[in-house]
Amino acid sequence: MKKKLVAIFALILVFSVSVLALAACEEEKYKGTSEQSTIETPEPADPDAVDTGTQEGGETVTENPSEDHESEDPDPVEDVDPEEPEASEDGESEQPSTPEGSEDEETEEPDDFEEVSVTVNGVTYTSVNRGAAFEVENVSAQASTTLVIPEFVEGLPVIGIAKNAFSTEYEPLSIVLPDTLEYIRGNQNINEVRRFATRLDGVYYLGNEQNPYLAVICFAYKNDLWQANIHSDTKVITEGAFATAFVTSFDVASGNEHFVSVDGVLYDKELTTLIAYPICSERTSFTIPDSVSVIAHSAFMSGETLTEIVIPDGVTEIGDCAFFFCSNIKTLTIGSRLNTIGAKAFAYCHFENVTVAENNPYIKSVDNVIYSKDGTKLISYRAHTSNNGSFTVPDGVNVICAYAFNGSSFVKEIILPDGITTIEEGAFAGCSHLKQINIPDGVTTIGSKAFRYCYALTGIVIPDSVTVIGEQAFMGCMRLTNVTLSKNITAIKERTFANCLMTSIDIPYGVTEIGDAAFGNCGALTSVVIPDSVTTIGKIAFTICYMLEEITLPASVTELGSRALGNVPTVHYDGTIAQWNAVKKTDMLFHGDPAVRTIICTDGNIEVEVGEP
């Protein structure tokens, strides 16, 4: 009995981590698509013939930016982050949106290709495949409650459904998919979609009258282990549909023309794409079959039993979140042709031994860190331990790639060399124990989410060489008290410093825009200097800044977003009452207490009640 209770407790613990991992890999509903870099240099026909002593300049691989992991989302700023799943009536946890798919799976259009969009009955279709087909780009709240996606729009086949296609406000009664459908990207509004899906053996399907099992949408969270059975008529599996599923093995019904299972692992029919690995398998070591060239989105996510992975020469691409939270993998072997690594492919892994084939012309491993072959890009740092928590990026590196350190919880200090020019999206996100990092003079770009949820970070100096700081770059750095901004940035973007602890901020002259929730929930903020170059302050920019008793706005401000000034009781405006009245205001400017706010203008005061613009 005691052993049984222990087993049940362990199962619940794994399930909880899996749910959080899946939610963490999800991108925000309204966030744009991510980018994925691949090697432009053609792959050698015979990798064994490559001169391993020669570094191939420019042949690099980067991780594609998407969402970084947060074990939990502490951000209370309104209208910002998706909530964690809640329990449904049948006792199952509501399925969060699945992680978004790997960008390079989508057809890349030539530079001179002009995208075409068509809206029919509340559904927007966008051209793909150089104008040869359409995909569903967006289903608005105005669409019919009985949604029938046609096989053809303006004579072209509808072959796919894009990321985030289903609006969170859209509540259909049914959806009918076309037989022409070839793919469904991840991050759909699954909680709504699965309400009317067909459920069979724990798998949710969408389809049409002729084939109700056309597409797998998601799996059902269950509190026990199970075998996932794929119907014989299934043609499409949504990206990440089985991410974190408690699957012991996959079984594809005989006669299915699109998928196959081998030793309980799910592949496409040609065995070139590994779609999903059963994370509750008892295996501790797994070698990818030689025929596989692509490891799909979230394929091994939360595979806690695995301690060793061998990626053979045939694999060229690893999808987004492929090994996300496989925290027990100690040994990783990479073959000679891997040239594309998706966003957070190895996030929250802690490797002890990383080996890359010497004749791989794209990447190399040095001290268990993965770099581009020429050493100019640091691609993935997943070391289990470091020098007392300190890591020095070697000279010659000029780019910290997207999500390179994401979830490296052992690192406390990072020393960057002077040659660094770019810190890409999510590069250090989720480094929860990172206390100190220098940003060298010469860095020009700090990507979105670059330091998001670096909880231990207390101070940052951004040199004047930096011209761009991305959205959410320092969001959730809950101990960040000292910030010095570059004098050459032009915008404080959306949620850049949301949920930080600074008491004051001096925004440099030249900044024209303060984005949505840029300083939202900065509860210790008491002083803000806004220069007279600022023209726009976005919605909830200073919401939940309870210590901010007053704020001074320059007369250059022409637009204020909804609840932009949050709880601030007194506003000093460097303009006349007439100028204030001319400022474009979206909805109400304030919320919460006190009920009446004072606008002090140069020629008099205005009393504004909460709820008024």
Residues in β-strands, percent: 25-35%
The portion of residues assigned to helices is under 10%
Radius of gyration: 25 Å
Low-confidence stretches: 1-21, 26-110
Strand ordering within the main sheet: 25-26-27-29-31-33-35
Tally of separate helices: 3
> Structural class of the helices, strands and pairings?
mainly beta
> Tell me about the biggest sheet?
7 strands, mixed
Report the end-to-end length measured between terminal Cα atoms.
64 Å
**How many extended strands?**
47
Rough shape? globular
What is the mean pLDDT? Answer: 82
Question: What descriptive keywords fit this protein?
Answer:
seven-stranded mixed sheet, mainly beta, globular, 613 residues, disordered N terminus, 3 helices, six-stranded mixed sheet, 47 strands
Can you walk me through this structure?
- By secondary structure, the chain is mainly beta.
- The chain is 5% helix and 26% strand.
- It is built from three helices and 47 strands.
- The chain has a seven-stranded mixed β-sheet, with no helix packed on it. Strands 1, 2, 3, 5, 6 and 8 form a six-stranded mixed β-sheet that branches.
- A hairpin with a 2-residue loop joins strand 46 (596-601) and strand 47 (604-609).
- The longest helix has 23 residues, at 2-24.
- Residues 1-21 and 26-110 have low confidence and may be disordered.
